[in-house]
């Protein structure tokens, strides 16, 4: 028998029981659920990562839907428990859903939601911040200053890399990868090389138009290239940012062999998922190549770092905060709640998960749809014509 898990209850008399495994930013998501007759239960346990047993206890005997987190293991056990409790909806409060076994959800007929779009620019901004911080050695310089080591300007003090005119490489040019590419091209006049399974047509058009604008103004135009292999990006780019989904094809995409093909002074940024990089190989590479720098938001065994990483001056490490802006986190909570609510109410699925703005407008009621259900097709759920 699992021990009871502490909760906070909103609208106790609500007809539908919706559980959130964590407290989430803002109150709009709670109000939207209450307005549609939901009793909202929020887990208030102090520990950061809930176990499968904790979540089974939270689901209990009757539960219509759950909002969960990317740190939780949503597999056979949890979907079976949710299904037994009468639940038909689960949403991650995240766009990535590599922590969810979608086949298990399909088996129990549970819709799986995610939260695309609302975190695109926020995540791209953090990737750009890490790129700049690594290029200009901002964290090292900050530590030096605070340690009282600065005794006057010197020609060699914290010399880094100029981004203008260098090449930015993007692996996974989807929503976030494309937004990051635009920031680096437009903001720093970098040339672009990208690799994705699909052509990023809008991104290519943007760089072409921006290059023409620069040329018309007497400046060096920026260029773009769609690489035919990932290795081409690794060989040619000065700054490389990783933005693919994590799946079998991207696990350890960056390994010892591939690191050795990169420029000795390259910068590698990872704001996707930790296991996209073989972190042990990365630590070794950083030790052997002190001018190679990394900016990491995600780690292979979160919350842990592989031994040696924390001691390296050529690594900047932050705790998975790429989507951490107030607007984005409140929006993620809203989208996750509306995914669950939409399924409970029998609404159709929103037609375009890349355009979720109508759900985020605080001054209007959200559309009667679930914003993004990743297994809608597998479950045969109807798609909204709105
Ligand atoms: N660090 C964070 O806080 C944070 C925040 C948001 C998203 N993410 C991660 O970023 C990922 C991407 O998010 P998105 O909204 O841009 O998703 P997206 O689906 O729009 O983009 C992912 C891209 O990866 C490409 N891709 C898939 N397999 C590939 C492969 N083998 N090689 C090259 N490209 C491949 C896809 O074609 C797609 O264009 C999420 O799945 C999530 O894991 C992390
Ligand atoms: O996938 C996501 O949404 C992130 O990792 C959380 O910000």
Summarize the topology:
Blueprint: E1 7-10, E2 16-20, H1 28-35, E3 38-43, H2 52-59, E4 65-68, H3 76-84, E5 89-92, H4 102-107, E6 111-113, H5 120-135, H6 138-146, E7 167-171, H7 175-188, E8 191-195, H8 201-216, E9 224-226, H9 230-236, E10 239-242, H10 256-261, E11 267-270, H11 279-288, E12 293-296, E13 315-317, H12 326-345, H13 357-360, H14 376-379
Parallel strand pairs: 2-3, 2-4, 4-5, 5-6, 7-8, 7-10, 8-9, 10-11, 11-12, 12-13
Antiparallel strand pairs: 1-3
Helix pairs in contact: 1-12, 2-3, 5-7, 7-8
The structure holds nicotinamide-adenine-dinucleotide and (2R)-2,3-dihydroxypropanoic acid.
GO biological process, one term: oxidative photosynthetic carbon pathway
Protein name: glycerate dehydrogenase
EC number: 1.1.1.29
- Average pLDDT, all residues: 97
Number of domains: 2
Percent of residues in beta strands: 5-15%
**Sheet with most strands: strand arrangement:** 9-8-7-10-11-12-13
Total beta strands: 13
Shape: globular
Q: Helical segment tally?
A: 14
Structural class assignment: alpha/beta
H-E string: EEHEHEHEHEHHEHEHEHEHEHEEHHH
Domain D-isomer specific 2-hydroxyacid dehydrogenase catalytic: 38-346
Family: Belongs to the D-isomer specific 2-hydroxyacid dehydrogenase family.
Catalytic activity: (R)-glycerate + NAD(+) = 3-hydroxypyruvate + NADH + H(+)
Pathway: Photosynthesis; photorespiration; 3-phospho-D-glycerate from glycine: step 3/4
